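Re: your question from the hallway

Yes, I did run it. Sequences:
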Amino acid sequence: MATCDGSEARAALERSVLRRVPPLLTDLYQFTMAYAYWRAGRHNEPAVFELFFRDNPFGGGFSLFAGLSDCLLFLQNFAFSDDDVEYLRSVLPAGTDAAFFSYLKELDCSAVSVSAVPEGSVVFARVCERFRGPRRRLMEMGLRRAQGPDGGLTASRYTYIGGFDLTSNALAGRLFGIPVAGTMAHSYVTSFSSLEEVWPQTLVPCGGGGPIDFICLVKGWLGRVCQLLGSKTSLVREGELAAFLSYAIAYPQNFLPVIDSYSVSCSGLLCFCAVALALCELQYQPLGVRLDSGDLCRQSLEVRRVFKECNKQFSVPQFESLIIVGTNSISEQSLAELNKKENEIDVVGVGTHLVTCTRQPSLGCVYKLIEVRGRPRMKMSEDPEKSTLPGRKSVYRLLDTDGRPQMDLICLSEEAAPKAGVSLTCFPLGLTKTLQTVTPAQVTSLRLDVFTCGQITFPLKSASESRERAQISLQTLHPHHKRLQEPHDYTVALSEQLHSLVSDITKGNSKGSNFLLSN
Amino acid sequence: MATCDGSEARAALERSVLRRVPPLLTDLYQFTMAYAYWRAGRHNEPAVFELFFRDNPFGGGFSLFAGLSDCLLFLQNFAFSDDDVEYLRSVLPAGTDAAFFSYLKELDCSAVSVSAVPEGSVVFARVCERFRGPRRRLMEMGLRRAQGPDGGLTASRYTYIGGFDLTSNALAGRLFGIPVAGTMAHSYVTSFSSLEEVWPQTLVPCGGGGPIDFICLVKGWLGRVCQLLGSKTSLVREGELAAFLSYAIAYPQNFLPVIDSYSVSCSGLLCFCAVALALCELQYQPLGVRLDSGDLCRQSLEVRRVFKECNKQFSVPQFESLIIVGTNSISEQSLAELNKKENEIDVVGVGTHLVTCTRQPSLGCVYKLIEVRGRPRMKMSEDPEKSTLPGRKSVYRLLDTDGRPQMDLICLSEEAAPKAGVSLTCFPLGLTKTLQTVTPAQVTSLRLDVFTCGQITFPLKSASESRERAQISLQTLHPHHKRLQEPHDYTVALSEQLHSLVSDITKGNSKGSNFLLSN
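Structure:
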């Protein structure tokens, strides 16, 4: 993990990655429409878009906001290269005015401003806190199943922000300062077949002294462990013992092997105990084991029982602090079940289901035009859900007397902010025509001006800073919004003024989208 | 789309993107194990790994192989920078031998060889051909929902290889030569509110001549269309008409608006017909419409009926070739249902469900050690499915007398290849102990040596070359393996010799992973 000294260099590295998104990485229709706007002389008209999502993911009660740094660095560095423009010339229709391409070459974001909530805020995007169970540490290990290289980096960064403790992704560790962790692959174990392959064969005790024949020491312990547990040494896989021996000699202070390459109870656990007892005899502290298949709960109980028995028999208090890491296609559901059952798992590694969000692989964010030249715009649709809320807005979070968020209120930005202690009336979304009165104990404005006329105007947060905000943000949220099963809906409401604007535009009696009264 | 002349430059561009995966983008345990191997002097031992997957995705009958170019370019350019090595020094345990880091600085892939099937082969990875229905063209438009920038590029490239015709992703067009397409966003429509915003207001006829007042022309057509269809001009949205007018003036040869921003039947379709008829009068060929909400089948039938009626009434044969593009959260299932129902959709745009693979967001590929120093290695497991097949292998595809693949046969590479017309016995996977006899009419070796001692030894294929191979590969496959519902299982079998090796190692009487007989 990067030290504090290296944090500035790392922040620079993190930014260099985030800013390399090329401006051509967008849908073609952005260019066809850009030309149509430009051709009509409308490219200098001020317009407001807003980004939102319609439902919390996974049937949950809240979301965490992240991704702002990526956007801001993209915007600040936005420019088309000559090659980009030539490519666009080749794909846009023949006859497209050449002056448009000259315009693109000069285009930057100096006229763009963005307001947003800070990264790590609870907003009712990608949530992983829900994986957290009692006490345990969580490790993200999904790189191999992510969508390409950036997909893997994205997953590592945002799961860390969301509450994971560790990642297996070495580049994410370097770029984002996320603590990295890793144990042993099954292939390491199966690459050994005999004790003859162990080299070097000696280990110097932790406190110093001459090198000890480590193979001989471990063989002695294996006999005693088998006797204690009533196991047969003849069922122990020689290759597995050789692999653990070799790894312990390389990493005497970091011994955490995977013990299910053959059979946990007949071979893996016995080999671990023998090697770990030998390490303890030489004053090293073994770390623990990883289980990667089968019934993790049942096995973890058995492993813990054996650890305790070893301590009782051989007086090795180090065995009381051994950790058990569980990894085996862990999903949100299987982790919830695991948390319900008795088990002794200290660290859970989650991969595929986390980085690919199996239950809901996309959030469904929408980005809609809401104002042009100061006038509100609204999209209506035959799917009522696809209609949008018109006008430039402010969003306030109303807190109750316990300091807990009770409602997010969406107002037109021209409205005065709600005041603490003053009652107001509003229309909760989803409950048409139901007017509600609420008196907030505290009011927070959710959106900050983060990008103003082409410049980043809000300090970019590192992954760990956003992670900290996420933790704080989640702490204030009432537990009934956070639970996995049937979370309470959090109220999002429209101000009376915004509600009236929607009604007016829908009826066609606003300048927002009038009907063609005569032709 | 890139022209043939630009294809070499584009290939260079494509490679520059594929080769930029940094070597640190891997799981930490690869480095911890690398050190343990190195410490034990085993880093120069020859070993073989193989990559496979256990089940075809989406309950289907086959898969398409792709991604080889990415791997080969990564391998050929594999090298650690000094900064990479310093980072690794900071995360590996203190006391790790400094000579290991010197070793890493010199490390390359000059001793690595890879054999693989060519990209685009049917292998029983990510399948999108299944989206294809009768006649229609398919457009990928999932960039906004993909996992980060690379996720989006990856999706565009591999859906094209898998059979899609078009992408909305402009950068994918430039990098990979995929034909790009795009229409119009709802925000373009809602950005207009009145005909006063249309500028310029004139259009020069296709055949030349003086500029015509296009607004006036369209208004005239709108009246006639409303009369023909019995619709009220008073329900037409002025902003929608203004948007279509403005777009048509910018793109008279590429008019394909989205017609459901307000109401298809009361406004969008009428505006389209009026503008399209005016374009036809000026000898332009409008392209068609896009539907983005509601019941796409029903609406497409209505739209087609109106097109035909316009032609009948106004004698515009151009209206017979208008296309209807359908986009609205299309999934594999909804497309299958759409294909069953009567509809008039010519192009289907698929986004979220395609790039995030909602039904199964990961394939579950596994990468396992199978040979060390010429000796087979096998991982056994308490989950029988997690056991691996030992030894370096060859894979042959056996074809029947119709030239259709009937079985893939996995042999040890030391075995002689099966011969056409000669019967052989084998053990189909999934049917333990069932010996089967088969006489292939033709035999193809599936794996090619694509990377030999650090050099790419097989010409890298462009996206379009791999796409072509995929089409050919799919054509030979029997339809009963390709259907969506309950596809026939394709037979994959082990040679007798490989089957014996598995039995021997499982019983512990092979040198693969012997038991510890004495301690």
